[in-house]
Design a protein that fits this description.
Layout (H helix, E strand, L loop, with lengths): L1 H12 L1 H35 L10 E4 L11 H6 L3 E3 L1 H46 L4 E3 L6 E3 L22
Antiparallel strand pairs: 1-2, 3-4
Helix pairs in contact: 2-4
């Protein structure tokens, strides 16, 4: 039993599990914001266009309840009176929320990918500049063609005396 708890602790403290938990928390908060935008900013004008002040109260009665519904009854009133309803207003609200949430996630991922591509290009550019700035530390022996230190005046492989005027030689 102790081994199971140890394995669980190791699993939960790994970076991937923590990253996943943070992602779920942020996603939940993002979803709440999107739902609020849809419910409070987009749906009221759509409801006015369709002649109903509350878009979520759009429904079709599938089965009558015990009492008669008054004109312009809300969905809550219909449910309270035992009516079975087809709630297309709520469905359209949820569909719009889903589409906006998907659009938001798409734009975030697209932005992150664009940022990562720019950072990769910048990193490659910096590496190329750094490589170009590095001075050589070795030269090729003109006699045996092996790499030797740039300041060498004699080749350690073939023992040839190197020309002092050769590039990299000490004068």
């Amino acid at each position: 039993m102790k081994k199971i708890f140890q394995e669980f602790r190791d699993f939960i403290t790994r970076g991937n599990a923590i990253d996943l938990a943070i992602g779920i928390i942020i996603g939940s908060a993002f979803s709440t914001v999107v739902n609020s935008i849809v419910d409070n900013l987009f749906m009221p004008p759509f409801g006015l266009i369709l002649g109903n002040a509350n878009f979520q109260d759009l429904f079709i009665v599938l089965r009558q309840g015990e009492q008669q519904l008054p004109p312009n009854a809300t969905l809550a009133m219909a449910k309270e009176l035992g009516y079975v309803t087809f709630n297309y207003g709520q469905f359209l609200t949820d569909l719009l929320s889903f589409l906006l949430l998907g659009l938001g996630v798409f734009l975030i991922v697209k932005g992150i990918n664009k940022f990562n591509a720019k950072m990769s290009a910048l990193k490659e550019k910096v590496l190329k500049v750094e490589e170009a700035k590095e001075e050589p530390t070795e030269k090729e022996c003109p006699f045996c063609h092996k790499d030797i230190p740039i300041k060498a005046s004699r080749c350690p492989f073939c023992t040839s005396q190197l020309d002092p005027h050769q590039e990299g030689a000490i004068e």
